[in-house]
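Title: Comparing notes on inverse folding

I've been comparing how different people in this forum approach sequence design from structure. To keep things fair, I'm posting one structure and asking everyone to reply with a full sequence. Here's the target:
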């Protein structure tokens, strides 16, 4: 008699859940399959979970900008300012994949933090105490930050080229950590998956989005095969 590997229909059981993280048990799974499946799932979560980032910057009082300009009235130059802007944790109510503007208007001397940025309806900065820049004495700044929704890492040349606007490479990924371990039994395995986000998206959505992506990819249509 030829031994056949048993086939299972796995279920997902929620073990732990809060606004920033989720831990689930996926199983039963076939022997020696859990690790391969977990690695694929992990890559999909990192690469294809949508997030929000600052993609560009416009200084309304300056006629010409380039990537290494110094900004009048601001202590930081453009590269350092973008480094600070990448630390903003931005939450959006609806993923409509349309750019939106955030405004900074302040008179110095003043230290600008996340709480000083004016956001449109449906957009919230979660880390309000994060440092952005320093406005020098007797100077007033008027900055427009361009935010957008995307996935993974996107190069600046993807966003186009507009007058008085500087674009930056952007990391949209809202995932801070994904880990897993495998429980092995005699005839099957169980996968324990842990996901931690930056708080801008529901961990349940992250998991469902990853499985939906994989389901779309495996529904192949064979022609002349």
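Reply #1:
Here's my take.
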């Amino acid at each position: 008699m030829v031994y056949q590997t048993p086939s299972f229909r796995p279920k997902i059981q929620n073990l732990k859940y809060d606004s920033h993280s989720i831990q689930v048990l996926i199983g039963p799974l076939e022997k020696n399959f859990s690790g391969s499946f977990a690695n694929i799932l992990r890559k999909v979560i990192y690469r294809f979970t949508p997030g929000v980032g600052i993609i560009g910057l416009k200084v309304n009082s300056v006629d010409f900008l380039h990537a290494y300009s110094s900004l009048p009235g601001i202590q930081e130059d453009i590269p350092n300012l973008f480094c600070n802007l990448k630390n903003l944790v931005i939450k959006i109510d609806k993923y409509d994949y349309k750019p939106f503007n955030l405004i900074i208007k302040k008179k110095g001397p003043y230290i600008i933090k996340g709480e000083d940025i004016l956001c449109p309806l449906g957009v919230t900065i979660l880390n309000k105490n994060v440092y952005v820049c320093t406005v020098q004495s007797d100077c007033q700044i008027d900055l427009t930050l361009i935010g957008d929704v995307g996935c993974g890492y996107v190069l600046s040349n993807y966003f186009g080229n507009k007058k008085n606007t500087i674009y930056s490479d952007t990391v949209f990924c809202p995932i801070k950590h994904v880990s897993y371990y495998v429980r092995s039994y005699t005839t099957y395995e169980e996968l324990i998956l842990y996901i931690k986000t930056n708080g801008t998206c529901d961990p349940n959505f992250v998991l469902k989005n990853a499985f939906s992506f994989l389901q779309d990819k495996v529904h192949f249509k064979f022609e002349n095969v």
